[in-house]
Design a protein that fits this description.
Blueprint lengths: L2 E5 L2 E3 L5 E8 L7 E7 L6 E6 L6 E3 L7 E6 L4 E6 L8 E8 L4 H7 L4 E2 L3 E5 L2
Parallel strand pairs: 2-11
Antiparallel strand pairs: 1-3, 3-8, 4-5, 4-9, 5-6, 7-8, 9-10, 9-11
Length: 126
Amino acid sequence: QLQLVESGGGLVQPGGSLRLSCVASGFTLSRNTIGWFRQAPGKEREAVSCISTTGGNTYYADSVKGRFTISRDNAKSTVYLRMNSLKPEDTAVYYCAADSIRSDQTMCLTRAAERWGQGTQVTVSS
């Protein structure tokens, strides 16, 4: 079964940090561009960051540049999103997604992907 499973979400105070993980099973992660997206209540889904198959290219939304870092370990079929200096406006359900065709920039700009995970909740609040 083709699956993406996110973990690492939770409740954190403003200024805090979290690391999200996305583990792939049933398909070869290394052949896919991977992206992190988020959706807050009442808002459209937005791209957070995307990474190319080798990790050599990355794309970040302006709202997270300098605070979030995407990385991948293809040997572990895992992609990470390190989130620092979290703000209340970062509160959302975070999803990872995989695509075997789109580049990192295209994936993030179109917010489209072949496979999606179930999401993990991130809440930033004091």
